[in-house]
From TrEMBL:
Family matches, as InterPro entries: ArsR-like_HTH (IPR011991), HTH_ArsR_DNA-bd_dom (IPR001845), WH-like_DNA-bd_sf (IPR036388), WH_DNA-bd_sf (IPR036390)
Protein name as catalogued: Transcriptional regulator
Organism annotation: Natronococcus pandeyae
Family annotation (CDD domains): HTH_ARSR
Superkingdom of the organism of origin: Archaea
Pfam family, one: HTH_20
Length: 180
């Protein structure tokens, strides 16, 4: 006897590579990415800011976290300065993480916008499929399986990655200026 049967729609999709997923397993690293999103900082400055945010970490620990983020290609050296016989490194995030929760009434408020976005995106995906389907399929064939998944959605991932990169280009240019 079935007590409950319900359709469970997909409500969220997280796309990232395994190295980035592992790098984000630690709250401190997420805080470091947030700090480096708009400013370049040294290990010393990151350590001080973490302390201000309630995280008492040794500089060696902070350096480890920054190196994990660098290895995952989420943080880069933005600037090097001569520091009296040594070199001072300034780091900056090249990755933006959105970790927000929409207000309770957002779904209802945004329903018309969601409908427009769905229609426009469906048309864009169809255009991409017609104009670049062969390239998308070629890249999908070369992808390695996700270590967590048995079901693989390579072509969907490639299209999502294209759209994500388009959003990045828009946000780095003038595409989102009016929304900031």
């Amino acid at each position: 006897m079935t007590l409950l049967e319900s359709e469970v729609p997909i409500r969220d999709v997280i796309t990232t590579d395994p190295e980035k997923a592992k790098a984000l397993e630690n709250d401190v690293r997420a805080k470091v990415l947030d700090m480096l999103a708009d400013d370049e900082m040294t290990i010393e400055a990151i350590t001080e800011e973490l302390h201000r945010r309630g995280e008492d970490k040794a500089e060696t620990t902070v350096r480890h976290h920054v190196n994990v983020l660098r290895d995952a290609d989420m943080v880069e050296i933005a600037r090097l300065e001569d520091a009296g016989g040594g070199t001072r490194k300034y780091y900056r995030s090249n990755t933006r993480i959105f970790s927000y929760e929409l207000p309770d009434d957002a779904e209802e408020t945004l329903a018309p916008a969601q409908e427009t976005a769905t229609e426009e995106t469906a048309a864009l995906v169809e255009t991409l499929r017609r104009a670049h389907g062969d390239e998308i399929e070629a890249v999908a064939r070369e992808m390695k399986p996700c270590e967590y998944c048995e079901t693989q959605h390579y072509e969907e991932f490639v299209v999502r990655e294209l759209l994500n990169r388009a959003f990045i280009e828009l946000s780095e240019g003038e595409g989102f200026d009016e929304l900031r």
